[in-house]
Every structure is written in C-alpha cells, then in structure tokens.
Amino acid sequence: MMRSFAELLAEAKKCPPKRVAIAVAQDGEVLEAAKACQESGIAEPVLVGDAAEMARIAREHRIEINNFEVINDTDPESAVRKAVLMVHNGKADMLMKGAVHSPVVLKQVLDKNIGLRTGRVLSHVAVFESPGYDRLMLMTDAGMNITPAFDQKVDMIKNAVCVARSLRIETPKVAVIAGVELVNPDMPSTVDAAMLSKMAERGQIKNCIIDGPLALDLALSKESARAKGVASPVAGQADILVLANIDAANVLYKALVFLGGAKITGLVVGAKAPVILTSRADSHEAKLVSVAVGVLMTSKEQMRNENNPPETRKAAESLKVVGR
User: Is beta strand 123-129 parallel, antiparallel or unpaired with respect to 137-140?
Assistant: First the structure.
C-alpha cells in the first residue's frame, strides 16, 4: 500500500522506463512533465505536434528539445491520430494528452481501426493524496461517464481495482457512495450499491471488497460508522470511492483540491493502454504522477503476460467458453 505520491514515484523508478506518446505537445507544462519523466527515468517521451512551436516554448522554459524524439505535425487532430497509432502499433506504452481538447483525443482512442478499444467501458480513475487520510485513495468517475448505468459501474469498479492493484493495494476496499447508507427503492444509487456489494460477495466482481450504499462520512471515518451502528469491512478504510454520477464525482474531486488541500491526478482506464487525460490546467507535477501510475499499470500487465503466455491465456479463454 502506498501512502504518498513520493512513494508512488519512487516505485515507478524501479520499473523499466516506458514510452509515452504525447499528443499535441506544444505546451509549457507538458514539456516540463516530459522533461521530468525523462530525468526521473520513468518514461521516454515522444513529442507529437508542431515542432516549431515546441522549440519556441522549450526555449522559454530552458528545456533542451533535442533530448526528445519529435514527430512534427501542425494539425492537432492529425497529431493525436499519430500518437494513438503509435500506442496501437506497440511503439509506445501509453498515451498522454497535451494542448488539445479531450474529445479530440477520445475520438481517436475509440476509432475502430486505429484506436485502443477493448470492449470494456472507459472510465476516469483519480488518485489523490489528502492531508486528512493516511494513504493514497482512488475515486471514479469524475471525467468520463456522465450517468453510468449499472453495467458501466461494474466496469468502472474493475478499472479502478486494476489501478489500485498496481499501487500495491492487492484487495482494495471499495465504497459505493450514496446520500444514505440504507437501501431505498426511491434512490437508484442505493439499489445499485447494494447489488454491486452482493456481486462482489458472490465473486462476480473479483479482487476487491465492496460495500454500499455508504454515505461519504462512513466510507472515510470508523468513528462515524460506530456512531451510526454500521458494521462494514469498508467503513473508515475505503481505498476506492465510486460515485453515482459525474456531477457528484467532479464536485468531490474539486472540493478535495480547493477545500481539502489534496494533491490529485488521474487517467483513463479500460483501453489497451493507459490514457493520461489530465486537464490542460494541471501542473507538470500532476502530469508526471499520472505517467508514473501508467508506468506501474503497464509494468504489472507486462509481468502478468510474461507469467501467463498466449497459449495459456487462449486455453483459459476456451475453458471460460465451455463453462458458460
């Protein structure tokens, strides 16, 4: 279990460096993040975008642009497409958004021919370090799914669990957040939470413990759980918060930063490779930590594949089909 971004970065430095394709990289914070990735040894950036503009910005920030591989393309949509294609073809391990709107990136990520589709729902997973909590915590979904249906919530949890396990939380405790802790048929979020909890109990959602519905205070405070008489394996020690919709998640995300003083970063999960979709307003430190999370995820997946060769995975899939 990791307790800080510093610990997360230190762990990423132990992994073999990955290649990150940065789409539309002509931005000061993006270039600073690329420099930090390279100097820390966690990733080798490939800058895709307007080479002349990148060179100008690099001079302003005193960054040596010749230290990077640069692919010149002055058209933002075309630059995004080239970056996505690099990941699609295995020439980069992850994708990072630069000075371009998120929908432009996601359009190429979801392209049927060159994109990074897997059949799973794509979801945003935030990782934050809060002065009021003793370890890193995850939250979903503050950036992708507006009003997720039940099956989307299942995939959102699976995606978040993948991230948590890459952060050494082997069996993350998942709190499905609602306004109350009692199941109320008039509040669909509480019904979904109870169903998700039961699915985990029966092994339909693996590698985690899920409880819900839980009000936010119960998820974060054992004292609140005791005061309310709620016995829960998740209460007061949640690793992952699952919010009912993007409004609730986005409000909590920004409240953590602007009221709670939390450091927060995140990425989109569920594609063939991590997609670092940080805000253009985020600092280069936040972008660096997002890359570090991507490095840990990619390294864990590569280790899993090495220990489970293609012929074994194919046999396992055949057994799954037979057992249906």
Answer: antiparallel
6 with 52, same domain: the answer is yes
Q: pTM for the complete prediction?
A: 0.88
The whole-chain average pLDDT of the chain stands at: 91
| Same domain flag for 113 and 175 | no
- Convert the pLDDT of each residue in 130-173 to its tens digit: 988 888 999 999 989 999 999 999 999 999 999 999 999 999 99
Kindly report the CATH number assigned to the domain that includes residue 45: 3.40.50.10950
What is the spatial distance between Cα 270 and Cα 117, in angstroms, rounded to a whole number?
8
Find, among 133, 123, 122, 110, the residue nearest to 221 by Cα. Answer: 133
Domain count, the chain: 2
Give the sheet arrangement for strand 18-23, strand by strand: 69-72, 43-49, 18-23, 94-97, 275-276, 263-269, 123-129, 137-140, 240-242, 173-177, 209-214
